[in-house]
Amino acid sequence: MISGLKPIPEPALRRLPVYLQLLKSLQERNINEVSTTVFADTLNLDPTQVRKDIAYTGMIGKPKVGYDVNELIDTIESYLNWNNLTDAFLAGTGNLGSAILGYDALKKYGINIVAAFDNDPAKIETKIQGIEVLPIRKLTNLAERMHIKVGILTVPAQAAQEVAAHMVDGGIIAIWNFAPVSLSVPKDIIVENAGFSTSLAVLSRKLTEKITHSNRSGEKIL
Q: 102, 130 in Cβ contact below 8 A?
């Protein structure tokens, strides 16, 4: 059953891909129905929270039954626009940029990288993972001509602001920023920072806390 959609809080939005992973694992095991209790127990969440999160997509579960797995997969993918490919440009073809170009699963998440850009003469007019590398100076014009709306930024920190400006000038309205720097862009531009340092900080702190607790309690860490 599909109801009207409403704006979704970012924490709920970030949980939807986690739900999707669980749903696909159930689908692979030929399990056709799933309850909020299964989500909650598997992901260590509150069942009410799971129900609210899924309701943002317009999907309402059936009492005592839950959700149809296949239907919920389709609903979440549609809500995230992962069932439609969006063309994107990538700027910066170093180790990280090249790895992203080779990450085929991006297309499962609705992103289709159609061109890459760099300032290194040795890389320009070559292909990485079958994608042509063009000079940065061509980015703005090509983005405008091709109506590109998504830019992936994997350049060094010192070049990030300038390249982001090229993207915005070309009509790109959403930037996935892997550079370790905050970008200054117009308010209507969407910027999602990849946040490696933030994730690592959380991991490191939790590890420190666990080791400290284990040392105090005498618990052995395997």
A: no
C-alpha 153, offset from chain centre = 13
Query: Residues 192, 95: one domain?
Result: yes
Query: How many domains is the chain partitioned into structurally?
Result: 2
Residue 210, Cβ neighbours under 10 Å: how many?
A: 12
**H or E element in which residue 143 lies:** helix 139-146
- Total-model pTM: 0.79
Task: Tell me which residue of 90, 144, 84, 78 sits closest to 114, measured CA to CA.
Answer: 90
Give me the helices (H) in 44-138, please: 47-55, 69-79, 95-101
- Asked whether 148 and 172 are in contact (CB, 8 A), the reply is yes
Same domain, 72 and 93: no
Question: Rounded CA gap, 152 and 91, in Å?
Answer: 6
Secondary structure letter of residue 2 according to DSSP: B
Q: Which helix (H) or strand (E) holds 92?
A: none
Output DSSP code: residue 61: P
Range of the domain at 67: 10-79
Other Cβ atoms within 10 Å of 80 Cβ, number: 16
Question: Is-contact 117 91, C-beta < 8 A?
Answer: yes
Query: Is the Cβ–Cβ distance between 154 and 179 less than 8 Å?
Result: yes
- CA dist., res. 119 & res. 137, Å (int): 8
Cβ(131)–Cβ(124) under 8 Å?
no
pLDDT means over runs of 10, the chain (222 residues)? 65 93 95 94 94 93 90 94 91 95 91 96 94 96 96 96 97 94 94 80 82 73 56
